[in-house]
Amino acid sequence: MWGRLWPLLMSFLTATAVPGxxxxxxxxxxxxxxxxxxxxxxxxxxxxxxxxxxxxxTLLLEEASARLLVGARGALFSLxxxxxxxxxxxxxxxxxxDHSEGLQLHPAPWDLNFxxxxxxxxxxxxxxxxxxxxxxxxxxxxxxxxTECFNHVRFLQRFxxxxxxxxxxxxxxxxxxxxxAEAFTLPTNFEEGKEKCPYDPARGFTGLIIDGGLYTATRxxxxxxxxxxxxxxxxxxxxxxxxxxWLNDAEFIFSILVRESKASAVxxxxxxxxxxxxxxxxxxxxxxxxSRSSHRVARVARVCKGDLGGRKILQKxxxxxxxxxxxxxxxxxxxxxxxxxxxxxxxxxxxxxxxxTLTTQWKTLEASAxxxxxxxxxxxxxxxxxxxxxxxxxxxxxYEGRVPEPRPGSCITDLLRxxxxxxxxxxxxxxxxxxxxxxxxxxxxxxxxxxxxxLKRSVRYTHLTGTPxxxxxxxxxxxxxxxxxxxxxxxxxxxxxxxxxxxETQVFKEPQSVENLVISPMQHSLYIxxxxxxxxxxxxxxxxxxxxxDCILARDPYCGWDPSTHACMETTIANRTALIQDIxxxxxxxxxxxxTRPPPPTKTRSVLRGDDVLLxxxxxxxxxxxxxxxxxxxxxxxxxxxxxxxxDGLLVTDxxxxxxGNYGCYAEENGLRTLLASYxxxxxxxxxAPAPQAPAMPGAQLAPDVRLLYLLAIAVLGGLCLILxxxxxxxxxxxxxxxxxRRKYSLGRASRxxxxxxxxxxxxxxxxxxxxxxxxxxxxxxxxxxxLQIIPGEGAPAPPPPPPPLPPAELTNGLVALPxxxxxxxxxxYVLLRQSNNGVPAGPCSFAEELSRILEKRxxxxxxxxxxxxxx
Length: 872
Hints:
By secondary structure, the chain is mainly beta. Helices cover 12% and strands 32% of the residues.
């Protein structure tokens, strides 16, 4: 699917891309693969925190006090930055807020004895819940009482030396509070948060506290238009709404202060940069009031920190607001997801990294791209031509007229002060009118070198952060951590030609989106905020690499090979000058360092000819290619001579003697070859064991002439048996005629009260002592004489027979000799056998003798599992 669709999508660049350098680049060069994959079960050195709350998405790291402050749903936490899971958060505060009674602190309804057990210090937990009344009002407005009608802490920053400043959605009625940083307690009075915090926990939001002023960007109320505001300042400002909106349904991602005037002679030129997405207005037809286009684009905007607004025009509005298009790879199908900045304190080296999601309008293709933008390039775009709305064509076009002076959107610097412009309120009306109608720049901001640093298919990055790392050799590399929508962290180093993903780590067992990332160089830790909790992850795990080449191939700026200890060491704790690294190429430096590890032991395998055998070989690197050598020289390829090369090892099918030999499994990566496993395979001749044979007929294995003799003998014996049987039958018939009557086998039923009886007549007539009564005579039993009556036991009970004259003796197989009722056998019903002769059982007759012989014959056999009456 990718192979067919990607070239088609790339063709859009030539036809529809905005002006700028060509962004075309073969996708196969950009689809980076993480070198190592670390599943959740193999995590080491991580620490976890989960308190009595949810949605741990707001993080504030204070390196000086080694604290990590966390804002969640209905709570704030103060954790040890050294170990967030040290258990200090378990000291739960017994105070909670009751907003229904004047926002006062009241004891929680717990056992009062618990208060005496509390430590003297304050708990690192603040409960900040919305009252039940507020939640009920929120639910009545149609909001979700399972997710939205709570107090989601969205803003948490240092306000001054003694206090923190926090804001929460508070069930769609935002509140803000100044928190005592030392005691970590809420105040008794709160501030209205509608001008500072979003009402909706799902809305995009970004905020900064700069010199006591609060700079925020979001949609503040249900019917308000998203804008950028400054509050808690003598001059409160916001963006313009008429005659056109400067912002169109904007979702804000990130903001950062860049001190461009630091150590500069141009004066107060510090700026705040905002990154967001909004509906495009410059593409297609539109109007001043609202764009009809549903296409969203990425933007970067800026305002001056020293802006005071206009005197008559743009009163309490920004006079320095400008915005520009931000593109990465495929402008029509990219969505901005996350931004981070590095070296913001030095404007000459400030640069930004942005994560985009690339999705087609049919949603058949999804990928993520990482682009880098240098501040100097952004400044160049804001110094370039403007866009304007052309009434005649009812579209946006490049402004070709004269630009007034001082340049619209500029900050007030020492140069402008020398010209008499001491603040933005002194700017001419012509300049302010131009700013009002020309907020958009004509050229887009394109990534460094005109192309993405990384393209990763089937991954959605949600957040990213980075830090510069100086290596022992001197160069400094940017190390990025990228969070995904399913709970993974990609660690990548930025190289001159792109990005190398060092490893991917599954930090959450259950898939969930990474909501925030914060790096602590002092603690050498990465803090990850998500819905279920906070994870502390070490920035590097160099001990995972066991050899010099493995350490070099990782290309981790934090890791280097120490020749003296023969171990991969952290650059932060080891002798930095002696460590070996090769970040750029990743394959040099280990030539003179002998590997002290013993080679892998040779394992023996012995199989029968024709069998299949698997030789396992685990490749620790996803970038390595498995190379199999037979007897040290012959390379094995997949599908050749019964060999199948896979990710799990080498499968040899239908083994033959020529498959015997010594097999070596190598990892071939970046020009280096490392032995991983060694096998000695022996293929033995097949000697199958004799199969069990069924009993054969006599003569089956004899010669043909002997077999013929056996067949003739069997035929003669068969003929003799037939003659003997005929003779016996003839004698029996003669004997029956002499007795004066003949009997036939007859099977019939006679009615009885409560059941039915089956009559079985014998051929030979009477038992000893039996008198003939004629064919139609009836005995005392009401049945024909000489009959054997069988009554099924499942029917209605029959009249009990007279007791036998003598107690019956036991046969050898445990059955009573000729009983009136046979015992239940294997779960079958009792069956009544009675020979009727005037109702009195007679002694043993031919039938009884035959039955006895049958039972005697079966005494050594196992009874049938489910014997039925017909078999008896």
